[in-house]
Amino acid sequence: MVDSTLAEMGKNLNEAMKLLEDNQRKVEEEHEKKYTRKDIPGPLQGSGQDMVSILQLVQNLMHGDEDEESLQSYRLQNVGEKGHMALLGHSLAAYISVLDRERLRKLTTRILSDTTLWLCRLFRFENGSAYYHEDDREGVLKICRLVIHSRYEDYTTEGFNVLYSKQPVIYVSSAARSGLGQSLCNQLGLPLSCMCHVPCNTMFGSQHQMDVALLDRLIKEDIESGKLPILLVANAGTPGAGHTDKLGRLKELCEQHSMWLHVEGVNLATLALGYVSSSVLTATKCDSMTLTLGPWLGLPAVPAVTLYRHEDPSLSLAAGLTSSQAVDKLRALPLWLSLQYLGHNGIVERIKHASHLSQRLLENLKNQDFIKTSVEDELSSPVVVFKFSPEYPHKDSDPMLQATQIPPMTGNERYICDTFNQWLGDQLAQLVPASGVDIVELEDEGTCVRFSPLMTSAVLGTEVQDVDQLVECLKMKVPVLTCTLQLREEFEHQVRRTLGLAFVEDLTWPGLGVIRYEGQNEDQQEKDREKINAGLLKKLNELESDLVFSLGPEFGGEKNCIYIGMATEDLDVSELVETIAATGREIEENSRLLENMTEVVRKGIEEAQVQLQKANEERLLEEGLLRQIPVVGSVLNWFSPFHASPKGQTFNLTAGSLESTESTYASKAQGSGTTPPPTPTSSRNKQRLPGQKRFRRSLRNSDAFSETSSVSHADDLDRGEPRWPSASPAGQEASPDPVEPSEPLAPDTTGEKPPTPAGADVTPPEPEVSLR
After folding, report:
1. CATH code of the domain covering residue 386
2. pTM value?
3. What average pLDDT score do residues 74-92 get?
4. Going along 568-699, which residue ranges are E strands?
5. Contact 34/64 with Cβ under 8 angstroms?
6. Does one domain contain both 320 and 387?
């Protein structure tokens, strides 16, 4: 029989999870939430609320005002039944804590002993004890306290005075987690001089492994200076590249100097598999290790575990590794429930699946051009780190030929490659979110893309098809990166030689380049330049092209610049630059015309007022003084009407001047005035194929088109005819092909005109006028 309280707790948990995971919200609730002040704390209601209302409030606080699409993309992890067991463990821990002391002691002892035994057998750590903690750095912190208590016998009574006489030293690899050494010193109350960062190998072996020879020399120097080496933190899978230190040699070195060896890293998960690499298997001989089972197995809210070997329980209690409080032992309850739910086979299967995913990606990357991998063991590497590198051409080419043909990259080129790899990692993470790839900064390789399925696959549910999709996306992005990198130099050269354009050097921009339209006026103000570049950006985005034009990054970008994105191999750089320059000149001239319009209109109005006053004076002299008298003028106009020619003025906005209206009264039609100036356009108005976008070369028909054009042009020159068709009279269609007469026409020597056919129009056609 199951306790009714436990059954009710499990039922309530299932109902609560269904409410929290239900993303279908009603329209009425969304409408009401827009007007509620849910983000502002309010008073506690006196009558209280039911569980459904409270859970609804929690859901609203979790998701906020997100719409349905963003909500689905945000909640990538489905907790599932295994996650419900871990969450149930937290609820049970709160329920068990109210039991009487004797029952609580028996239950917590059983839970703690079972979980410790399972983990020690699963990860091959014999005769070990376990410490369960929320923060993964807390385990090594407690180990440091344990080692200090062990090496300094009077530390419990004397405190820091014992450490002052003989300063302890903790050694951490330079490839370890950032901030680990400083965090340990702050928590232990030690100066930063007690922390020694050991560099990695620079000449031989992996560049992410600790330099054992240098470590040995550092330890001897510290001993000679009166310090006491107490602890070494090694890695079985560095946080960046996932490499494993030489644990065998490090263990020998620690035994030689009576030091404690602590190991952490993602590769420790492979200890549960049947086949384990020798470098990782040596971790079972270390003094302690930290396991992060939550991301490995996809279990939410389960603690990390630090397994250690020590014979004195009093020192473990003093260091905080064990507790006399039964409630503290309940930390292992969620893990105890989850391990039983998964079973030994389920745990091994999850870790094996993650290792299989990394091996599948690594095998596909071996045949990928321009991709450099950084793995420790190609046969078994849980973490795959790769990057785009132009130094790595086709895999089938000769290595000796590669070394002679490809020059080493300079500083700027390496910086550009880091920028491109940053873009590549963002694109892959966006296109295949289930893969869990992220970006990592390595000291020697620079910016790389990392695939660590042991940390992400169980949470995101990564499958083999996700890895295959990742490879396909990578194959599509690598040619884009290669072409853009090759065209950057040509683009910079074309921009620098074009009048009015300025090339802006920005190595952090992943694209073709950055330009700014300076214009023809050097004294142009910054505000005017900003308007011109903003209008130019708008015009470029309206064009039908594959390029992306933007203002650049939100933070840290150059002002008044146009950022051009990635390019393809068929990009016509010359046409692109000329189009940008021509469009910029057009916008600049239009803006200059608008700026001068106010001044022109003002001067025109003043001149018109002067002309009107002058016309009134002339009319007064012409009509005479008597006609201006009201009564006399009417009588005089009746006997002798005065006929004046109509005169007027018109203001031409294009020319900015006053013009007479005599021609308007004569022709009874208003003229068009001066022809406006032609709009500047690019000189490369090449003919595009149907469906072909701007700035693209026709790779398939370019050679054939050039040959056909040259032959046709030669035939036209031989015949003495122009290449373009002649204009046809109105109402007649032009023949596409010229009709050659069968016999040559004799010249007309009679001087008489040929007879005109009946009904034909004898009016000669007006010449066509084209505005260019």
Report:
1. 3.90.1150.170
2. 0.74
3. 64
4. 649-652, 657-660
5. no
6. no
